[in-house]
Amino acid sequence: xxxxxxxxxxxxxxxxxxxxxxxLGVPTLATxxxxxxxxxxxxxxxxxAKAFMERGDLVPDDVILGIVAETLAKADYARGVVLxxxxxxxxQAEGLDRVLANLKRxxxxxxxxxxxxxxxxRRLSGRTVCEKCQTPYTGREPxxxxxxxxxxxxxxxxxxxxxxxxxxxxYEKQTAPVLEWYERHGARIVTVxxxxxxxxxxxxxLKALER
Length: 211
Ligand code: AMP
What we know:
Elements: E1 2-6, H1 13-24, E2 28-30, H2 31-41, H3 44-55, H4 61-72, E3 81-84, H5 90-102, E4 109-114, H6 117-125, E5 127-130, E6 136-138, E7 153-154, H7 161-184, E8 189-193, H8 198-210
Adenosine monophosphate binds at residues 9, 31-32, 35, 52-53, 56-59, 64, 85-88, 92, 158, 167.
């Protein structure tokens, strides 16, 4: 199953993606994680993305589509994928469509996580992520250790209030139209509330996908 997670930055896509993917038996592709790893390793991709990411702006579409095409062509992704944080612009939606068509696959569902912007700012200002495996946490201080891999928890630079506000503006301008694009193209769009307990949101999402 190929599922695209959609929603504002901070809606919980990064938390839900591995849980939904586990239940479906497919891997995830989180472009934000790929870019943060590239940045940490100082690769050409990381250098290209750095300034955009730190401001909370979008990385250019051709860079993102390169990651998507390369990843989805790998054997591990033949059974499906949970896409997290991609696509974020209409050209990316068109590009993903082409990549999937070339691989003789199609998108089965767009899973939308619904949440208020006020809740987002509150959520992101209290968030830390593991610098190694990128698992997000709420209410854990920077410097504590990740439950999954033992890595250090850090604050993301783009979680400071100015960058968060910019990311929400970028979402409204560039990413919200993606949903209309999918509506126009007859995609199956499933919307669940992103508010509440992590496990409950996962159950909600899986039930909605099953229907
Ligand atoms: P995320 O972890 O998904 O919130 O992504 C963090 C940052 O990486 C974003 O604010 C963008 O700068 C960049 N990024 C990740 N995915 C994309 C994408 N699909 N298109 C453009 N930029 C992206």
